[in-house]
Amino acid sequence: MASPLLDDGYTAWREGRMEDAVAALQSGVAAGEAAAIAPLFDAALEAGLTGDAAASVRATLDSALEGPLAPVLDQAAGQRAAARLGAVVLASGLGRAGDWPGAIAARQSDHERGDLRAGLEIALLCELAGFTGAALSLLEPLARSGQGEAIAALLRLGAQRGEVSEVAVPHAPALARAHPLGPALQQAISGLPAAAASAPCPVPDAQALADALFAREPERETLHDAPRIQTAPGLISAVLSDYLTAASVPFLHTATIFDPDTGEQRPDEYRRSLTASLPPSAMDLPALAIRDRMLTLAGAQSHQSEPLAVLVYQPGQEYRPHFDFIAPDGGRASDDLARRGQRAHTVLVKLNEEHTGGATSFPRLDVAWQGRRGDALVFDNLDAAGKGEKASLHAGLPVETGTKILASLWVRER
Ligand SMILES: O=C(O)CCC(=O)C(=O)O
Ligand SMILES: [Fe+2]
């Protein structure tokens, strides 16, 4: 049964009273309520907390995740949830600078203690950072033990290399039935030869892996100057594109728009797709690394981030021309604007390419972008004076055939 503090927290959150929501959830965690841990983290990030308020929430989360609440959270989630979330909190930058080396080191020791999920996270981070040999030698034992995400990653790597790890091949038919990308991956490797399992390869230490993940300033091509519209080819790898797609599936629902007349969200012809907004508390280090690369492209810090979203469009579905900046409404939207400022930038990453149509188009600028799997687009929604930029009007054009899958991140001024 939900505690009164948890109820108060959710009620305040629903009503847009973010300070009250954070305060109630924080009291809940302090009173030993494990179910308040994840919503506290999500609400603190949604409120864009900085300074003392962020540091105080962070201290509450740290002591809960390191203390007696951790096993309660694990039990409720049926997995080692506290360790995963602890690493995300560490890397998130809430209340303290994001500590990627510390978060990776924590997951490496979780893996050494037998947490296979932690091993998968390290393998995916290695792959994203370009340590493909290390990624393979971590993925193959996980795939042997039947871990679906490891098998999926090996199949994608195989499709790219033209030969597929013999460890993954026998699992492909089962994956095709059990994994959202299984059928596409099975098709992508069909006819390719099997490759012998890879020789063991040392895994970089936490500092080297963290450095490599964020070392490279993304290469950009400018499509338009003011407003700035830039592409960053290959911002994330194909393996991570697949991983984020699969991770979003449990959160997908029909997209809605905000109705200023009723103050409610509702489905509308204007925006037809499935959307998943990933609660930060449901993320893991690979998903957070994707988000942080997207933030880097926008030149932004983690507290400016809205939740990472994934959009899935079927044939005929589209996102008609719109602005991403928010219209003040004298109510909840205005409160939110006062707290976090405008949606200054938008970052999109193509997660697949098996479709026709569906380009992102800027009708007032004669700019359109299709992108390949892993490619990113960043654009500014504000003009030089910080006002909504009318030329940033943009649309996701109707998909003609296939499915379009896109990650989307809205980035605030502060
Ligand atoms: O689907 C697209 O191409 C555009 C998505 C978009 O405009 C958004 O996420 O704000
Ligand atoms: Fe948009």
Automatic annotation (TrEMBL):
It comes from the Bacteria. Residues 304-413 form the Fe2OG dioxygenase domain. Pfam families: 2OG-FeII_Oxy_3 (PF13640). The keyword Iron applies. Keywords: Dioxygenase, Iron, Metal-binding, Oxidoreductase, Vitamin C. Transmembrane segments: none annotated. Its cofactor is L-ascorbate. One of its GO terms (molecular function) is oxidoreductase activity, acting on paired donors, with incorporation or reduction of molecular oxygen. InterPro entries: Oxoglu/Fe-dep_dioxygenase_dom, P4HA-like, Pro_4_hyd_alph, Pro_4_hyd_alph_FE2OG_OXY. This is 2OG-Fe(II) oxygenase.
